[in-house]
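Researcher: We're reviewing a set of sequences before deciding which ones to prioritize for further study. For each one, I'd like a predicted 3D structure that I can look through quickly. This is K Homology domain-containing protein. If possible, include the structure in token form so it fits the rest of the review sheet.
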Amino acid sequence: MAQALSAADLQRRHELEGAPDPFPSLVDDSPVKPRATPRNGVLDTDSQEAFPSLAPAAQPGNKPVATAWGANAGPRIKPQATKQPTFSDTFVLSSIDLSTAGKDGKPTTLGEVMKQVTSQYKVKLEASTNQKLHQTTFFLKADSKKELEKAKKALLALLSPVVSITLNAPASTIPTIIGPKGVTLKQVRDQTGVRIDIPRRDSLAPANGQANGGSHSASGTATPLPTSPIDGDEEEEPTVPITITGPQPLAYEAQALLNEIIATKRSRATQRVRDIPEHVLPFLLPRRAQFEAAADGGEVTLTLNAPAREITVSGDREAVTRVIEAIKSAVEYFKAETISLKFSLPKRQHRLLTGKSTEDIMAKARCAIVVPKPEDPSEELLIWGKPADVGLGVQAVMEKANSAYIHEFPLPGPVSVSRQFLTYMVRVNYPKTLAAANPGVQVYTPPASTWDRASVLNVDIIGEKPKVDAAVSQFSALIGKLFGATKELPIDWLVHRIINSNKNAKKIKGFHEAHNVLVFFPPESAEQSSVLLVYDPTSPNASPSPVEKAKNLEDVEKELLKMARDAADVKTQIIEVEKKWHDAVVGRGGTTLNAIIGEDKTLSIKVGAEAGQPTEDAILVRGISADVDRAVAEIRQIVENAKNDEIVSSYVTEFEIDREYVGRIVGAGGAGVNKLRDTLGVKIDFSDEGEDREKEKESVVGAGGKKKKAVVHQKSRVKIVGRKENVEEAKRRIQAQADRLADETSEVLKIPHQYHSSLIGQSGKYVIRLEEKYGVKITFPRESAADGEGKTREALKADEVLVKGGRKGVAQAKQELLDAVEFEKESNNVLKFTVPQRSVARILGKGGATINDIKDTTGAQIDVDKASDDSTSANITVRGTKKAIADAKAAILAISEQVQEETTATVEVPSKFHRTLIGAGGQGLKELIARCGGPTDSKAQAGLIRFPRQGEPSDEVRLRGEPKLVAKLKAELEKTVKTLKDRVVLAVEVPVAQHRALIGRGGQHLNDLQTRTGAQIQFPGSRSYTQVGEPENAEDLAGVDPANIVKVSGPRAACEKAIEELKSQIKPPAPEGVTGTVTVPLKYHYAVSQQGNLFRQLRSFGVHVEQSVQPSKPAVPPQPASQADAATAARIDDPDADAGATEVQWQIVPNYQDAEEGESVWTLKARDQAGLDRALKLIQEGIEHAEKMTHVGFLTLPDRSMFPRIVGAKGSNVARLRNESGADITVNRDDNTIVIVGSETAIETAKDAILKMTTNNNNRPRGRRDA
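Model: Here's the predicted structure for K Homology domain-containing protein, in token form for your review sheet.
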């Protein structure tokens, strides 16, 4: 909302003091003699004592300066003496919702909404839409702050979506929220215009039930849920759900107001600093310790929610308040102290400016960077920092943005095919695979949220150029194999889980073995009715023939569609089983039920109360028809066996498996077999075969007449005891696991030892990825022993690698390992040479920018070995192809030779002038170099002029470059410093009330004055106010209020001229106003004030009202209880709930029978006597009208469907009824009741007219067609 701004605020808003003072003081900044500290001084953000309290409270002796626009500002300036003040405000909406603005004949376009607001309120309204950012900026201007606020609120209500927020408030705070007679709650409603519903106490659950444990607002409400109390004392306190409904920003405002009320009633508090500007948040993160110190010993906890840009502080109330103030002060400080610089970078480079890069930029340049989200198409970046740091921030950002080579690979084909390619890559984690195959390369796919609306899908590959080129080559090969190898099937997502269950896992896996086709089901949460088939391009058996690919895809498609048709046959069956037999069906620990459901878990069985049936003697079975029939039969058999007391838990089965698999099946510490025992409730024993069985047996004599020996695998016998169904299930699972183990194989690869480290990767990440991808175990030899064999469990030589696992996995891992070895063999060229030590810094560049540029351009790897301090040369090592090495060497030697031709010089410049010479964002240096004929390119300008770092006690400025340019720069610097030394500071008294007018809108008047006179003018409160030093004539103004002292700096003649013009523009004070009083009975207060309309009308002609007492009782008596209450409280599932809500109800009560006694004295302050007389007349007429309002009628209609007709367009029908009947009519937004206040005759007349309108409408045929 627009606010009356001080002169300092105006200067900050219009960036008048953002640039440094060109004439800083020659004297010390400390005052000549003790005096009151200015309220807004320069803040030392590095001081532990000064920060985080960035806006300290004034001392008792320093009374805050009263604003010129408040009620107690003293005499007003006559309209003819000065221009009527204007108020303005600007806000931005990222999305506009016109769905609510089109109801009941309201405007349906943005232009019509703006026209409606401007006609309804006295405001000027402009809007500007940025199509690229999808943002609309609104600018409002009005003659009164109240009118501006009303217009802004109305505009937000029309353009914002209507939301509902649930706020769980502790029950003890509800009386405070409502307030005496509902006054507090009414104030919140009036201020925000939203609907706030608090349930009645008798309608709430006795404890924290569904009302509190239900849906919780996602808006980040500050009040806790019962399950997460602020402290232990409040853990059991019930909460009441308060529902807030209205336009989104106004609903959030009401939520914040209620949270403030709740916080005042609790010993411990939780507060949030919300909507921290995105560019300010990075400046706050390093200052956590300073914020915690602001608690002054109190217990607090700070939590950061980075996506929501908010900081939550919980703990002792007083400590929380101090910390919150410190954070808010810091936010305001950085909002005022930082400036932004906007520039564009290609979208692909944005990936290099997130995560740790932002921390590096903050640590190096003290700047924050705001990068648009990946799904945002904008390429614009914002760098935020102090004026002196933004230049360094730009350098840091460019270094990061160019720190790696980026290849943007557009996926070919129609976008539907591109999405299929991208889905396959993401599901098999191909970006990670590609990055692991090319160490130093990162692969990024577009966000999933952009797939549907993107016309082209790009994959970004980032890293050093030769490695990126190799990765691009592999990626291109994959794309070529994927053409014609993908297909999407339309299958209802509801049956995906049944098709993709463990029951069908072997069959789906068989699609790959038989047809080389992979099947990808979308996640259940996506509710996407499609299945992707991919002819596996990485398989060694893959055929390049498009015909072969299409045939295999079509075969799998037929099988899947058949499975979908079978899976769609789902049914539900309820069987009656006495409750006493339920334990037999469930089994101990649910073991019997687990056996019935099976490992695939495609059945849902609910027993007893869980079945949701009228009787607990029911079991509900749901799933595929065949499985349901099987389960029902098994349940009935179990019940029958239990009834006959048969011993069914002594069923025994025995079978054999290979002994070598027993250890794997039993698991470490028996974990595998114990899981089967616990899940199915069976007993499992393993035993070896008898010792008398030979390991080898003689076979039948062969064709050659010799006897052959056949190898007999040693067996182990498995014995399982338990219930028959459970035993058979356990047997099936053990045999299935043994079959999987039988498929294992191993292979030894010959790979030279020199490539092992590259294949293993850092911390083994590459080999671990291969093991996880193919389900294999890969073993490399360790340090070689004396006999040449590696020290591993397996006997491996130094050039051997063992791959063990499933046959297919071993083959795929082998192929990928051999491909990686071939890639490592391709680039092994190395060149070493030396350069002079003094040229190393230039070769590296700022933050490595130059050397990285050479790497990106040539594609070579370059290592610079910094020699010792006493060495005159440095070693350079270049790796890569021969051409890349030659190009890199030539570029490095060119820079080295250039360094030999440069010269250096120094200039003594007092440190207090450094900031002035540098200028905002380094603009001063850029202009200085340009005046001397230097380069205009920022990269070429870097290093020409170097000032001491901040905090270094040095006045020496170093120059480096061509001899002629260095000489010109030195002369220009000396000339500028001489000019800066010849300046003075003078002061002039200007009433603080007139500062705003002298500055002008947008600082126009101040800029014109400074341009005409050549002097700099600083108003109190600005950042540079204290930096210019003490004025020479300070003693002449010793008795003047510091808030009225304006400083003027520059050449003496210019300062004197500026002071003369300032004095000539000072206006004389305005004459005193007039006052009057009137006594109003409290019971007539609401009728006289007309819900605040009277006060707004009085202010329109310059009269303000102060009341000695406010009424505490509501405006009208409560509605008598009736049968409508019972109908309202009925359950929505009650079939008779509508029976009592079909009749019109009419109730009349006296208006003032229980009214509040007493009187209130209204004090009227007016600009002139005519305005005062007019106000007194209006109030007296209001009292006379209130005396006639003797009765209140409550007209309750069956529903609200007729309310729009009763109200009429913009309230026209209600206004007409008021004029005809003489009664006040209020149509509630919360219920179906219309409140009519007036004489008994008037309310009856109004009631009859309303009922007539409803009757006529019901008899009239509807001519509107339902949409």
